[in-house]
Write a structure and sequence with these properties.
The chain has 67 residues and is α+β, with helices and mostly antiparallel strands. The protein has one domain. Helix content is 18%, strand content 21%. A two-stranded parallel ribbon has the order 1-2. The longest helix is centred in the middle third of the chain and has 12 residues. The protein is elongated, with a radius of gyration of 14 Å.
Length: 67
């Protein structure tokens, strides 16, 4: 990580892009990966496509913003 002028470490930005949050392995792997990242070290966002009603119920992570 690169320190800023004040000596604080900048968080690494991580963006996961997934077509939809349908039930299944890819969605579960993505959510587990995001959940397991250290929030002090990584700034994480998930970008998804539109919802069709078959998606799994997800737990919102307060630090995560949808764009």
């Amino acid at each position: 990580m690169n320190p800023t002028a004040t000596g604080k470490m900048k968080r690494i930005k991580v963006i996961h892009i997934i077509t939809r949050l349908d039930r299944g392995g890819v969605t579960e792997d993505t959510l587990l990966t995001v959940k397991g990242l250290n929030r002090k070290r990584y700034g994480v966002k998930i970008i998804t496509g539109s919802f069709t009603g078959t998606e799994i119920e997800v737990t919102l992570i307060p630090e995560m913003k949808r764009v």
